[in-house]
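User: Here's a structure from my thesis project, written as structure tokens. My advisor, Dr. K., wants to see whether a designed sequence matches the one we expressed. Can you design one independently, without my sequence as a hint?
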């Protein structure tokens, strides 16, 4: 892996080529954002922007030739490229993964609020656009088939800001891991195990969560979306907490494997449990308490 990372960072054109090529292979498209983040962390935001612009341009041209549309390149810029550049520039300036997580969560929360202010019912708006799109390109819309697609679209629209935040943090973590592998071996692990969202954020998150529980008991609307965003952010701190405690205790790595397995096998319950652990850690600081008791 070290050889690949050195190849990517050998020059701007190497980084652009690898990033653009990964975007053409959907299973590896996240690598494009990680490359932009790695360059930003190592050389600064200006160089990261150059790689972002270059890879997006190459990808847009390829999509225009292959599919007659640059929409995928625009989606990449909005959903992955720009967040990776901004968050990695922030990480480079602060060296705090917790601060970056808070910033990403606040940005996603602001996007949710703006979306609902602009479109009171985003799901209905997207469904209307989608139905019109289908009607313009087909002889008619099968009501039963459309309802099935509508259910899927509702889930996608409601979860999009949360998914963008989580995906952006994963890309940041990958970029920081690559950066540490090149310049500071084991540095990523130390930073991640020390990730904290802080009591100020936890206080605001707690207030929003309580209001959301009472305001959106049926699981819909802006309050529900903000609550899901908070749950995701606290769950990321919960994951860092588990890594930190396992390292402090010198426990078997099986505990970490079990945690990630639970995220795959019993996702809702595991995410909720990690979120509660992460939120309470903001107040009780389990890692510091355990370190002092050693």
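Assistant: Designed independently from the structure alone:
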């Amino acid at each position: 892996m070290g050889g690949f990372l050195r190849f990517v960072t050998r020059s701007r054109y190497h980084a652009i080529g690898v990033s653009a090529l990964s975007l053409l292979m959907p299973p590896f498209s996240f690598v494009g954002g990680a490359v932009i983040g790695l360059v930003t962390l190592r050389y600064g935001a200006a160089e990261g922007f150059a790689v972002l612009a270059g890879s997006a341009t190459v990808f847009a041209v390829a999509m225009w030739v292959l599919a007659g549309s640059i929409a995928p390149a625009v989606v990449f810029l909005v959903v992955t490229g720009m967040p990776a550049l901004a968050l990695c520039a922030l990480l480079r300036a602060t060296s705090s993964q917790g601060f970056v997580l808070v910033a990403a969560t606040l940005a996603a929360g602001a996007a949710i609020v703006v979306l609902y202010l602009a479109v009171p019912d985003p799901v209905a708006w997207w469904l209307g656009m989608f139905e019109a799109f289908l009607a313009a390109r087909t002889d008619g819309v099968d009501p039963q088939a459309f309802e099935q697609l509508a259910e899927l679209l509702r889930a996608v629209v409601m979860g999009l800001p949360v998914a963008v935040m989580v995906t952006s943090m994963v890309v940041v973590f990958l970029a920081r891991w690559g950066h540490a592998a090149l310049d500071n071996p084991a540095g990523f692990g130390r930073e991640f195990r020390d990730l904290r969202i802080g009591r100020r954020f936890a206080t605001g998150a707690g207030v929003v969560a309580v209001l959301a529980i009472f305001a959106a008991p049926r699981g819909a609307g802006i309050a529900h979306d903000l609550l899901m965003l908070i749950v995701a952010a606290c769950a990321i701190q919960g994951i860092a907490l588990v890594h930190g405690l396992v390292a402090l205790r010198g426990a078997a790595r099986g505990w970490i494997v079990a945690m990630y397995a639970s995220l795959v096998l019993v996702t809702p319950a595991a995410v909720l449990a990690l979120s509660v652990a992460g939120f309470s850690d903001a107040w009780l600081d389990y890692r510091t308490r355990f370190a002092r008791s050693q």
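When you compare it with your expressed construct, this may help: The chain has a mean pLDDT of 86.
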